[in-house]
Amino acid sequence: MKLQALFQPRSIAVIGASRREGSIGYMVVKGIIDSKFEGAIYPINPKADEILGIKAYPTMQDVPGEVDLAMLTVPVNAALEASEDAGRKGTKVLAVITSGFGEVGRRDLEEQLVEIGQRYGMAIVGPNIVGILNNPAKANASFSPYLPYPGSIALVSQSGALLIALDGMTWIDKIGISHMISIGNMADLDMADFIDALNEDPNTAAISLYVEGLKDGRKFLDAVKRSAKPVIALKAGTSKRGELATASHTGSLAGSTKVYSAAFKQFGVTIAKHLDELFVRSIALSMMKPLMGDNIAVITNGGGAGVLATDAAERYGIPLLDPPQELKDLFAQWMPAFGSPRNPVDMTGMAARREYKGAVLDALKHPWTDGAAVLYCETAVTDPQDIAEGIYEAYQEAGATKPVVVSYLGGERALKASEWMKSKGVPAYFDPDQAMSALGCLRDYGRYQAHRETSTFMPFDDVNPVKVGEIFAKARSEGRLDLSENEGDAVFQAYGLPVAPFRLAEDAEQAVEAANAIGYPVVVKIASPDILHKTEAKGVKVGLSNVEEVRQATAEVIANAKTYKANAKIDGVLVQKMAPKGGTEVIFGAIKDSTFQQTVMFGLGGIFVEVLKDVTFRVAPVSPQEARKMIAEIAAYPIIKGARGQKPRDEAALAEALSRLSQLVVDFPEIKELDANPVMVYEDGLLIVDSVIKLQ
Ligand code: COA
After folding, report:
1. What is the DSSP string of 650-667?
2. Closest ligand 1 atom to the C-alpha of 47?
3. Out of 236, 362, 550, 680, which could bridge 515 as a Cys pair, Cβ 3.0 to 4.6 Å?
4. What is the Å distance from ligand 1's center to 25 Cα?
5. What is the whole-number distance in angstroms between the Cα of residue 103 and the centre of ligand 1?
6. With contact defined as beta carbons under 8 Å apart, do 404 and 329 qualify?
7. Please, which residues have CB within 8 angstroms of residue 406's CB and are 6 or more apart in sequence?
8. Which fold has domain 288-451?
9. Measured from the CB, is residue 403 less than 6 Å from ligand 1?
């Protein structure tokens, strides 16, 4: 609600409005005037009577009317006092352009700023911003030269300089913007607050973000989840590995970029890899409904453009399919005999308005088609504008429900026609790749919309958190944060995860007893809280099939452990049922990420995880449905599905186990990282054979 004052300000004060031409305090006032803001403008300056012809006031207390938005452009040493002044006046939103806060190590100043805001109920944008550019209110309250090209994309940026640069670009590429908001250090209002506010803003259809780093990833994801409008994000900055411990496999695989993109995908944030894509995708999502199925028609007048689009379609996850014969017959009417009614539908170079309109209308009206990409290469025998109008008519006559994107290749005439399309609300691009990227993200968003309701996590109730709590408490009481394998196995068991049966044995005789009870063959592993890398310590013997082998293996691993680490505390050995042959090795993991908190990981074991790092992450908890998507996402998925004559592995069991694991880490935020590795998956069921759990 408070941000309404930001989106629809009736008055704007500039604290630090300057008489000095070209200075920031001067340009902000000039920006507001030049953009034809219709509300009241209050320059605040203790030494000036007027600035740029507008009456100035010495302090905020002297301002006659209410102040919705105040821009702060005084130097940092005067910023806190000026903020107090603004707060006392009852200012609703204070946008702090001033630099010199947290970005230069002065977090303390930032905290004081937030404290002032809280005391007066005044929301704070920034500090360290270029300002706020508000097209609907015609307010350029920034030191960017002018308002952006008008439209319905809201752009929120952590980089101010980038925002200014993009402002100019929106006019060249005719990218329609509602608001451009520089959020700087996010001391108070952050990305999530703006997603919530923009979701309510009638002038915004899509929310576009330039993200460098989020402070509270969960808050961000919750806001995205609430948003009825698409959110598109360009995440800059690569992995902050330093933050992550690398003792577990999961830890070493988790870089922040990987977790960011996993979290974004999971919550339906459209990811853009670069600035161009940010706009390509924002335009599409701000103008079109999502693509609700995979059947797209690509209609073109040139084979080359068609081939490029076909290649791109595959890359963006919407490979072209063969339309039904009756639709191909309809397409055939609109082309000469040497055209092609298959997908891509190539009407060849003479296709004009009539043909384009006919083919696009046939495509959109047919129940098979979910959406269309229309490509046009400029020729001497056709008029790009005329064709654009034909395409637009077809889109309208078909009810404007199925998404259409356009690629117009050519010179000035083509560019003009393409701009006209955009002005009519049809996403139009130059490169067929851009058009397919647009359609691809509309499809991703459609898929997300379709499964959003079905994929809620329902906690399992046959779990035993009390037992887990006891295990953790015992480890802590012994001054340990690393759990032993039998403790880890017991934790997994308490959450209904299938662990290969095991028993702890103090000596060889107990080991034999355990093996007899479990059934052969068994594995004997050293049980010591001081030895995490058991193989390295020669602490594992597999395939033991009788009493004598168990007795001997126990003696050997204990001796090896003592050689490996003389002062290691040795609890004995873990005797575990040998997992049956024929299983596929996978890895489950979990790590507490500094931004998104608990996450879970899945991948194929062995070389796939070691060398190829073929793993996928999700923010926990995950429903079994979401877990199935994780499984299908890894490159080695065909192996799970059953490659080379092998029977498919038990995906349902995998999905349930991942979902249970995600519940475990959510229930126990003190778990810092965890591996179940390897996990053997069979045609029917799975078995965890080793575990690592580290507490915080
Ligand atoms: N209340 C009101 N006005 C005040 C004031 C106060 N408490 N204290 C000073 N002023 C006035 C000054 O008198 C001056 O007006 P004048 O030029 O007419 O005398 C005006 O405020 C500006 O102060 P000045 O000292 O000239 O500041 P400056 O223009 O050199 O720098 C900033 C101010 C905020 C622009 C600068 O400190 C800064 O932070 N720049 C970086 C901004 C930036 O890059 N942001 C992030 C982008 S990503």
Report:
1. -HHHHHHHHHHHHHHHHH
2. 13
3. 550
4. 6
5. 18
6. no
7. 373, 374, 375, 376, 388, 391, 418, 421, 426, 427, 428, 429, 435
8. Rossmann fold (3.40.50)
9. no
Q: What is the C-alpha to C-alpha distance for residues 148 and 140, in angstroms, rounded to an integer?
A: 9
Work out which ligand 1 atom sits closest to the CA atom of 75. 37
Task: Choose which residue among 19, 45, 89 to substitute to test ligand 1 binding: the one with the highest number of ligand atoms within 8 A of its C-beta.
Answer: 45
Quickly state the pLDDT bin for 456 (edges 50, 70, 90). Answer: confident
Contacts of 307 (CB under 8 A, 6+ apart): 344
Please give the CATH superfamily to which domain 584-695 belongs: ATP-grasp fold, B domain (3.30.470.20)
pTM greater than 0.85: yes
Token code pair at residue 179: 């608001």
Query: How many angstroms is it from 20 CA to the middle of ligand 1?
Result: 10
Task: Assess contact for 388 and 375: CB atoms under 8 A.
Answer: no
27 token code pair: 């340009």
Dig out the tokens for 216 from the structure.
């509270």
Is it the case that residue 244 has pLDDT exceeding 50? no
- What does the radius of gyration of the chain's CA atoms come to, in whole angstroms? 31
Cα-to-centroid distance, 105 and ligand 1 (Å) = 20
The tokens 């117009």 sit on which residue?
408
Fold of 1-127: Rossmann fold (3.40.50)
pLDDT at 194 over 50: yes
Residue 644, pLDDT score? 76
Mean pLDDT of 442-448: 95
Q: Please compute the mean of the pLDDT values over residues 105-117 and round it to a whole number.
A: 95
Question: Is the Cβ atom of 97 under 6 angstroms away from ligand 1?
Answer: yes
Same fold flag, 1-127 and 288-451: yes
Q: Which CATH number fits domain 501-577: 3.30.420.40, 3.40.309.10, 3.40.50.10160, 3.30.1490.20?
A: 3.30.1490.20
For the chain, give the longest Cα–Cα distance.
Answer: 99
* CA of residue 423 to ligand 1 center, whole Å: 39
**CA 582, CA 580: separation in Å to the nearest integer?**
7
Q: Where are the domains of the chain?
A: 1-127, 288-451, 501-577, 584-695
CB of 73 within 6 A of ligand 1: the answer is yes
Residue 483 has pLDDT above 60, yes or no: yes
Query: Is 43 near ligand 1, meaning CB less than 6 Å away?
Result: no
Cα(214)–Cα(613) distance, integer angstroms: 25
Residue 375, helix vs strand vs coil: strand
Q: Is the pLDDT of residue 535 over 90?
A: no
Q: Residue 357: pLDDT above 70?
A: yes
* Nearest-CA residue for atom 8 of ligand 1: 74
Higher pLDDT, 110 or 529: 110
> Could you tell me the distance, in angstroms and rounded to a whole number, from the CA of residue 223 to the centre of ligand 1?
34
pLDDT value of position 254: 53
Tell how far the Cα of 30 is from the centroid of ligand 1, in angstroms. 15
Please give the Cα distance from 691 to 686 (Å, whole number).
14
Cβ of 80 less than 6 Å from ligand 1: no
How far, in Å, is the centroid of ligand 1 from the Cα of 560? 70
